[in-house]
Amino acid sequence: xxxxxxxxxxxxxxxxxxxxxxxxxxxxxxxxxxxxxxxxxxxxxxxxxxxxxxxxxxxxxxxxxxxxxxxxxxxxxxxxxxxxxxxxxxxxxxxxxxxxxxxxxxxxxxxxxxxxxxxxxxxxxxxxxxxxxxxxxxxxxxxxxxxxxxxxxxxxxxxxxxxxxxxxxxxxxxxxxxxxxxxxxxxxxxxxxxxxxxxxxxxxxxxxxxxxxxxxxxxxxxxxxxxxxxxxxxxxxxxxxxxxxxxxxxxxxxxxxxxxxxxxxxxxxxxxxxxxxxxxxxx
Length: 283
Fold this sequence. Notes:
With 283 residues, this protein is α+β, with helices and mostly antiparallel strands. It is built from 6 helices and 12 strands. The protein has a domain of 196 residues: 4-Layer Sandwich (Phosphatase 2c, domain 1). The strands form 2 sheets. It has a 6-stranded antiparallel sheet with strand order 1-2-12-11-8-9. Strands 3, 4, 5, 6, 7 and 10 form a 6-stranded antiparallel sheet that branches. About 8% of the residues have low confidence.
């Protein structure tokens, strides 16, 4: 896997991407990592955990494993493009919002992304086992990504943990993924008092032998902007502040907007590593 540069704007088959990762103001090392592969149309953000350098190892290894799995697929399996149901909806807590998506099912790209995520988890779990780390206590990482193959009208969203994917469309920001945390689970259940900590994950890649990723398809439109980020951004900066930056984004300003988001997180405390990747679709 070729290294992903934080100083490079990527020309995708259907748009542009730019990513930036910063250690923040408190942490001693950066356990976040991201990947942009223009040829595969693959963009991923991972936020590692596990103490010392284990989180950095987990996020780096997760990106490499996922990338290798997708790169080795036979592209002929994806030549038949299925049209999305315009009345399908986003999963989880966004299910009431019509968004032109297709839920997890038998589409080959969804199947491939799901298998790739589970492969990553199995490999990281095996490393934890070999290092004698107990179940649930080993190194791990979140993973949130999009995969849009060249010439495809749709893209696959895959997600484990609490990194996020947002979309900016028609002057409105929408959170596409749902945080897999005890905090979000409590909110979804209608609990408003004695809430658990915001960063207590329900699942991540690596600590446990099984994982159930959120995987679905959606249809980007020309002019759509997608933001992938670790919780080091949204934990420090509220939705309105993020929206104020995204409304000024264009293909020419992706670099400036990415830096602005990272600086906002640092201005508001910078307590965690912060990673942002902006993806602009022009087709």
